[in-house]
Amino acid sequence: MRIPLIGPYVALLTHNRQYRWLWFSQVISLMGDWFNLIATATLVSGMSGSGLALSGLFVARMLPPFLLGPVVGVVADRFDRRKILVISDLLRMGVVLGFLLVRTERDLWLLYALTVLQLSISAFFEPTRSALMPSLVARKNLVTANALDGTTWSSMLAVGAALGGLATATLGIRSAFIIDSVTFALSAALVYQIRVPRPEQPALTQKQNGFAGYIDGLRYLWYRPHVLVLTFVKAAGALSFGAIDIVQIEFAENIFPIGSNSSATLGLIYAAIGIGTGLAPLIARQYTAENQKAMRAAITAAFALSVFGFLGVAWSPNLPVLLLMSMFRSAGSGVLWVFSSALLQMTVPDGFRGRVFAFDLAAFTIASATSTFGAGFALDSLGLSAREIAFGAAVTGSAIFILWGAYRYCYGRAKASFAPD
User: Fold this and answer.
1) What does the alpha-carbon distance between residue 343 and residue 346 come to, in Å, rounded to a whole number?
2) Which residues of 132-148 are buried (b: 16+ CB within 10 A; e: fewer)?
3) Nearest-CA neighbor of 36 among 65, 61, 55?
4) Residues in the chain, pLDDT under 70
5) Cβ neighbours, 10 Å, residue 204
6) Does residue 291 sit within a domain?
7) What is the pLDDT of residue 421?
8) How many CA atoms lie within 13 A of 54 on its CB side?
9) Which residues make Cβ contacts (< 8 Å) with residue 369, sequence separation at least 6?
10) For 395-416, b where at least 16 C-beta lie within 10 A, e where not — what string?
11) Angstrom distances, CA of residue 263 to CA of 48, 96, 164, 243, 274
């Protein structure tokens, strides 16, 4: 097997200054995000000890992008995308400091409220960032840029989760929130440096703002089913791995804890996930390059790899095997995310890109929330074990793999490589 080359990624960062600012901001911000996630999960688990309470945390993180999807897409296609990113970072900088006020179980409502507020602001950031990227990166480099983004997300997950678990266990939960606030400030300063080489014109007129602009975006997808299917790829994967977010906390606390604190085990699990999601897109890109037919075939392989990983998690006899299987299942997730994003950026014109990526994120988050809530309900109310829920995720993933295969067979062959609309 060929070893993935780092040359294209180094060249992209070396020669594309504007993308480099965007990438540096991602590195800084993601580090704080993983500190925040482990800190809030540990806080909820320690104060409540409830699977449904943990599910509520993840649902609170997932619902805002779904509920705000119609607004987010229109805003991203109407206003200066760089300014949207800067404002989002500055607002989140202030919000995360509010987590310092959560001190007892009676304050958990505040944690949920602040989480909803933080992720509501983030709902504007992610689709806008995805929509901005093709204005900074040449079409021939979009797969490379998305693979690098995916690897960066994963690397920061691996590093941030490991350090976050260590910092939470040693320095205390509140230190993570302060670090997260600082990272948002640094990210805003970096994004502010970006100058778009090809100045964007507002894609929507004043008359198209609001609901009319959103309907135009839905109409665009409805008449382009192959684009619509791509917006559901991440959501299809999330129907399975959303449940694993709850399961892995159960594994960390009650099955394979390290000492008396679950933070260390949870940090290792997230680190393994980061390694899987980071390496898989880099390896896959060596075989697909920018070929859209090959990229769709890689998505097929990713669905299969995810199922294998879910089964492995369900039957893990010890922590090392659990970590290995977590890498396998997250490798599939990484390929799904990177390749579906790259295909959308290569296909969707600038005027609809914000709304399409907002729809893409909304579908992903509602699928994640549904899966996560279902896992929490299964733990608390149905009495299912973490292993049984992981097996259920594998069954769900198998059904999705079959559906994707049927789509590829019936419709994908004739239009596997399609030209931009």
Assistant:
1) 5
2) bbbbbbeeebbbbbbbb
3) 61
4) 1-6, 48-52, 55, 157-158, 160-162, 164-165, 167-169, 171-172, 198-211, 259-263, 411-421
5) 24
6) yes
7) 43
8) 30
9) 58, 59, 62, 63, 66, 242
10) ebbbebbeebeebbeeebeeeb
11) 16, 20, 8, 19, 16
Q: What is the pLDDT of residue 299?
A: 92
Q: What is the pLDDT of residue 414?
A: 54
**Helices 51-67 and 17-48 sit at what angle, rounded to 10 degrees?**
150
348: how many CB neighbours lie within 10 A of its CB?
26
Provide φ and ψ at 4, rounded to 5°: -60, 135
| pLDDT number for residue 411 | 67
Residue with the two structure tokens 């399609």: 418
Structural Rg of the chain based on CA atoms: 20
Q: Give the separation between CA 77 and CA 214, rounded to whole angstroms.
A: 10
In a domain? residue 246: yes
- Among 243, 230, 231, smallest CA distance to 368 is for 243
Record the pTM. Answer: 0.75
Q: Amino acid letter at 128?
A: T
Q: How many residues does the chain have?
A: 421
Q: Are 164 and 266 in contact (CB under 8 A)?
A: no
The domain in which residue 272 lies consists of 14-196+221-412
- Whether 9 maps to a domain, the answer reads no
CA distance 166 to 153: 19
Distance CA 418, CA 421 (A): 9
- Give the total number of structural domains in the chain: 1
* Angle between helical axes of 350-380 and 386-407 (0-180°, round to 10): 150
CA dihedral 174, 175, 176, 182 (to 10 degrees): 120
CB 67 within 8 A of CB 124: no
Look at residue 77 and tell me if it is in a domain.
yes
In a 13 Å sphere around the CA of 190, the CA atoms on its Cβ side amount to 20
The CATH number that applies at residue 78 is 1.20.1250.20
Residue from 19, 29, 129, 114 nearest 72 by CA: 129
Measured CA to CA, the distance from residue 155 to residue 415 in angstroms comes to: 34
Task: Match 């993570």 to its residue by tokens.
Answer: 176
* Nearest 10 degrees: Cα torsion 150, 151, 155, 158: 70
